[in-house]
Amino acid sequence: MSVSQPETRPSLILRLKDSRNEPAWTDFARDYEPFLTRLVRRQGIPDRHVADVTQQLLMAIVRSVDRWKDDGQSASFRRWLSGVARNVSIKFLMRERRQVGGQGGSDLLEQLEAHADEAIDSARAREYDHELIVWAAEQVRGDFRESSWRAFWETQIEGRDVADVAAELNVSPGSIYMSRSRILARIREKIEKVLS
Question: How far apart (Å, rounded) are the C-alpha atoms in residues 183 and 167?
Answer without folding.
Answer: 20
